[in-house]
Amino acid sequence: MLCQDRPSQNVFFSPLSISSALAMVLLGAKGNTKDQMAQVSSPEDIHKGFQMLLTQVNKLGSKYLLTTANRLFGEKTYDFLSTFKESCLQFYHAELEQLSFAEATEKSREHINTWVSKETKGQNYKLLPSPPTPPLFSSPLSSTSPPHC
């Protein structure tokens, strides 16, 4: 799906991006979901580890360049716990932006794709296809690491 518009181009999935996105999901998970995810490793270690990693790799004056950007996009009508929002910001440098997916699905999709494109300096485009799949589109989260050549 990601390569439909440009079949000759490469698609890049960053293990850091995927891992941090899943770790943010773990931050908000409860019950059976949290228990199953926690079987892989200790949630406290994961969150503190990402906090240290993201702080180091994004530090000014480093000899290397790795740009990361995380953001949570949540349905405007959902009541997100303040502790969840604070933890996402503290550990993953990810703010929650609430959009109206239910009433403005296409506008929300375009907004997310624009954010991803801006954060990746135009490298990532159309993260969410049109039309989005409604049941899976209630609270997308995005984590990106644009490639540096």
Structural class determined from secondary elements: alpha+beta
Contiguous low-pLDDT stretches (5 residues minimum) are none
Silhouette: globular
Number of helices: 5
CATH topology: Antithrombin, Chain I, domain 2
Into which percent range does the helicity of residues fall? 40-55%
Query: If strands are numbered along the chain, what order do they take across the biggest sheet?
Result: 2-1-3
Following the backbone from N to C, one meets helices and strands in this order, namely HHHEHEHE
Q: What is the averaged pLDDT score? A: 77
CATH architecture: 2-Layer Sandwich
Domain Serpin: 1-147
Transmembrane segments: 12-29
Protein name: Serpin domain-containing protein
Region (Disordered): 123-149
